[in-house]
Task: structure prediction
Amino acid sequence: MVLDPGRGAGMTDASSIKLACLDLAGTTIGDIAMVERAFADAIATQGIVPGTGAYARAMVHVHRSRGCPKIEVFRGIFPGNEAQAQAANLTFERAYEDAIERAGLFPVPGTVEALEKLRAADVKICVITGFSRATLSRVLSVAGWMDQIDLALCPEDTGRGRPWPDMVLTAVLRLRIDDVRQVAVVGDTESDMLCGSRAGASIVAGVLTGVHSRERLLHGGANVILDSIADFPGLVLNSDAAKTPAATSSR
Result:
């Protein structure tokens, strides 16, 4: 675990954390390859196929935009062509949902235990994602987490998705959290970090189990880097860990 010395000292006591906002793919669900394949399938239906320069550019855009609303990713690939972006987005949703129906979903190691520890400490849990509402509902159903969380939000619920702070702030309002400084956010992308930092969360934790590097996470505003979600409850529930910068990481 690495804390950014410039920001770690400003965290509130961990005992004040009342809400944890957790990302899905790459953070709690280990389905990065499935998401990538669904993106590839979606753009292929619009004539962008592997082996072409257009495909390479599109997938670079996908990687850079991970964590953002999926429709916004496709709008970036097909600028000025809303019909094409919507068609690709629909294909993405179908491809991803078909994949999880066939193969199931597998939590990142430590996720179930992390949820249990947070709930035992009376920390409310909100899942936030760039998936659509339909895909989010399907993911939660397949994962079997409906009774493990207090709230699940997607861009359709809040007006704007990541990197904007709307989903975290909506969770604060709906779950009646008194202060944004009582929020901890964890995710694997730069947009997750931007969302948490813009919302004013005290803990903005990047995990290394997903798509973006430590450097990208720090650039987005992470004030702590964790190996995985398994380390998140220890950070949230341990005031010393939340306030004392660590010098090294296991990676």
In short: The two ends are 9 Å apart (CA to CA). Strands lie at 2-3, 19-23, 124-128, 151-153, 183-187, 203-207, 224-226. Residues 5-15, 239-251 have pLDDT under 50 and may be disordered.
